[in-house]
Specification:
By secondary structure, the chain is of the alpha+beta class. Helices cover 33% and strands 28% of the residues. A hairpin with a 4-residue loop joins β4 and β5. α2 packs across α3.
Length: 240
């Protein structure tokens, strides 16, 4: 019998002002899931110039979940085996559409019940782990000097990944560039703390509505993009 994961996750996504004005849907997507594999969170941003960007982002989240389940069932050995299994599944899920029409970024964090925490990304956005020692970056905002070329699934791009030991109180934050590019690097630690202090303890439905409201009322002047963020935290961090 699998043991229930001790980890906690939450997130939200909101259509940005540009798509709202155009009557277009949100082209971001996110997913959170628990299982025998542990706890998984994924965010994806469909590339705006592509005809089926929204579908590409939705299928990116599903492809990661399918790949994680298969990787766990096969013994969860090398992380490269997991990463290598995601894009073929994504291509199968978007068929008969083409990768060119569905290109999407993909960032995920996987926390098995025991052992290590894996964070990986293709494309821009924000992916970091916060521990008592500070922030450990995987992908960062462009304003912080990260060379975030907008790679995407379907472009044979390489994954950026890091693996961390499990640690009490650790928090992973993933976000699409609609959030990431508006955060000042020196204030991101405070942003993570605000998410934990103000939202982690809420009931799920109340939290989802509150986060949606924050993303819709985003304070950065003239912002346009869709916005998605997701948090994965060890239970002791969520309840602190």
């Amino acid at each position: 019998m699998s043991r229930r994961s001790p980890d906690h996750y939450f997130g939200a996504s909101a259509v940005g002002p540009r798509h709202r004005a155009q009557g277009e849907p949100n082209e971001d997507s996110w997913l959170g899931a628990r299982g025998a594999f542990g706890t998984l969170v994924v965010v994806s941003d469909g590339m705006g110039s592509r005809r089926e960007a929204r579908r590409g982002a939705q299928m990116a989240c599903r492809a990661v979940l399918d790949a994680v389940r298969a990787w766990h069932k096969a013994g969860a050995c090398a992380l490269d085996e997991l990463l290598g299994g995601i894009e073929p599944r994504w291509c199968s899920l978007i068929a008969p559409s083409t990768a060119r029409d569905c290109a999407a970024t993909c960032l995920f964090a996987l926390a098995p019940v025991r052992g290590l925490v894996h964070v990986a990304a293709i494309g821009d956005g924000l992916a970091l782990l916060r521990t008592q020692r500070g922030l450990e970056w995987v992908v960062g905002p462009r304003v912080a000097g990260f060379a975030n070329e907008t790679h995407a699934l379907g472009h044979s791009a390489s994954w950026t990944s890091r693996t961390f030991p499990r640690e009490g109180g650790a928090v992973v934050l993933l976000a699409t560039d609609g959030v990431a590019d508006d955060l000042l690097p020196e204030r991101i630690d405070g942003f993570v703390q605000w998410l934990m202090d103000d939202f982690a303890g809420m009931a799920p439905a109340q939290r989802w509505r509150a986060l949606q409201r924050e993303l819709k009322d985003w304070p950065t002047p003239h912002h346009t993009d869709d916005k998605t963020l997701v948090v994965l935290a060890q239970r002791e961090a969520a309840l602190a």
